[in-house]
Amino acid sequence: MTGHDVARPGGVGWVALVGGGPGAADLITVRGRDLLRRADVVVVDRLAPRELLADLGPEVEIVDAAKGPHGHNLSQDEINSLLVERALRGLRVVRLKGGDPFLFGRGGEEALACAAVGVPCEVVPGVTSAVAVPALAGIPVTHRGITQDLAVVSGHVDPSHPGSTSNWDALAAGPGTVVVLMGVAALPEISRELVKRGRPATTPVAVIQDGASSQQRVVTGTLADIAVAAEAAGVTSPAVIVIGEVVALREELETYRIPD
């Protein structure tokens, strides 16, 4: 599963789990772009940098897995089967994801599916939106003198729900930065539960919608008022939530994209 290339022994193809980065097409890794150019099949998620698909030849099969909150999505089992079936036919398959394949990307499940049938599988790390999107909004998730701790959690299930498996008591008690992915719908509950469990209501919060894109916008507030502010601004998914004192640095930092 490692190395600079993957052989195709006995007519078996390969699968590459490619992290596409935080959103902008030019933030994918060099290795990821190289494998895309060599692909016979590309299985793409909703949050992957879809502009890259325009560079593919007409002979490349593009499968839209969606993986969004609404509409038709392939199930994870269907995706696993698709990757394996195409690779066993001798095809080169790229599984293009947003962010990093192994951070809430279910890449581990796909790698295990390949391993179970002997399909070579390479993992190409991607720049995770948990760090990159705050950085592009002028928020370093760690900063000397403020915090050296960082927790990245899924907000898919709100903290008050019995199905939540994150340790929200520890997140509330600690001084570190908390980055919440997939948490916009549960933002009122997340804010309320963190305060209830010990985080000061005055803790700065930023919600960054459509990070790493020309549509990026940022709403800031505190745990006490961010849910109301985000709703008033019409914030929708995809968005990254940053909770912690580092958010205040945004007022002093100015990010800039050097023109091409």
UniProtKB/TrEMBL annotation:
GO molecular function, one term: uroporphyrin-III C-methyltransferase activity
Taxonomic superkingdom: Bacteria
Gene Ontology terms describing biological process: methylation; siroheme biosynthetic process
Tetrapyrrole methylase domain span: 15-226
Pfam families associated with the record: TP_methylase (PF00590)
Enzyme Commission number(s) from the entry: 2.1.1.107
NCBIfam families for the chain: cobA_cysG_Cterm, PRK06136.1
Protein name, UniProt field: uroporphyrinogen-III C-methyltransferase
Native source organism of the sequence: Pseudofrankia inefficax (strain DSM 45817 / CECT 9037 / DDB 130130 / EuI1c) (Frankia inefficax)
Upper taxonomic lineage: Bacteria, Bacillati, Actinomycetota, Actinomycetes, Frankiales
